[in-house]
Amino acid sequence: MCKINNEFLIEEANRCLNCKNARCQQACPINTDIAKVISLFKEEKYDEAGDILFRNNPMSLVCSLICPFENQCMGSCIRGIKGEPVDFPKIENFLMDRYLKNNNINIEGNNNKNIAIIGAGPAGLTVAFILGRKGYNITIFDEREEMGGMLRYGIPSYRLPKDNIDLLEKKLLEIRVIFKGNIKFNENLNNIRENFDAVFMGTGTWLPKELSIEGINKENVLYAVDFLKNDINLGSNKTVVVVGAGNVAMDAARTALRQGNKAVIVYRRGIEDSPATKLEINEALEDGVEFMTFNSPVAIVDNGIVLDKTQYIEMEDKSKKLVTVENSRFIYECDNVIIAVSQKSEFDLISLRNSGFNEENGVFFAGDLLTGPQTVVKAAVGGKQAALDMEKYLMRKE
Length: 398
What we know:
Layout (H helix, E strand, L loop, with lengths): L5 H10 L7 H5 L6 H9 L3 H11 L3 H7 L6 H4 L11 H15 L11 E5 L3 H12 L3 E5 L8 H4 L9 H12 L3 E3 L4 H10 L3 E4 L5 E2 L12 E3 H6 L9 E5 L3 H12 L3 E6 L10 H10 L2 E4 L1 E7 L2 E11 L5 E5 L5 E4 L2 E4 L3 E2 L4 H6 L8 E3 L2 H4 L4 H22 L1
Parallel strand pairs: 1-2, 1-4, 2-3, 4-16, 6-14, 7-8, 7-14, 8-9
Antiparallel strand pairs: 5-15, 10-11, 11-12, 11-13
Helix pairs in contact: 3-4, 3-7, 4-7, 5-7, 8-17, 13-14
């Protein structure tokens, strides 16, 4: 991440109107007290501001880099009505980076209970920070070698430098959190549950949702989640088509581009209907990613992808309906196709709960496993609530 000039941050902080009923805070999924944090920043009370941020949201460091700001704090800033919104995320990132590097995270309680966290993604790390600081004995299990989940293995480094995850890991070790990687969950769930007082599951959505078209199993076809988590190098000087237009699709296209390839997003609707944020779309365009909107994939063949053109037609009730344009089928030649049409979990929550993995028996859930693919901040919100529920459960058991 580029270093932000303090002068810029001061200027942004001075633009904050310190609204009494701050719309930015109301739009923040984790209810960050933005006005108070900015006021403390202006008074140069950096550690106090950082402490407020971290206690409210242990994922604040990464949220300040990858949150969909346009739909949250910045998108709701009253300054943005007639001009540019206050760039709070850059202030937040400065404060969190400084706070975590300059301060120890201390254990503030003494609770002699053993808690297992299955899944080292943002929801699990949030639970670990909150309960670890209260003195609970925390052990994190993960299938991968290092902690971080999608933060480390799913989000490209140009968006989220990995030293941010390393810093969070260092802070967890300060509160004696134990990490055990390379653990297969489906082989160890019962053993983990039996040996801990409470269990949190935040295993995420690591399996791709399949696209049911002919040719999907060809060797030149990849799923975006596999492409990103396994850091697959496609080579260079190729044409790579990415099917889908969410944030993961943008990440996959921009990663392919950085490998020296032509990257093309294929999407059956218009770019204005894309589930990706405007920031992600604009950055993809700035990088040089091409967009082929109103094209729907039909099949994948040896020399490319078969597409039908689509368009909107207006219905009698004035609503829009997406239809295929007759006789519009064509082949777009490419070397690789990456499918980015969402993800799913390897676990079925209903089956887990029916088999005894439920809140009544001390097993709690949050993150993408519970909600489906969502943002990091929403995973943190879920982890925060789960930590509260787990503590209530453990107190009742005493």
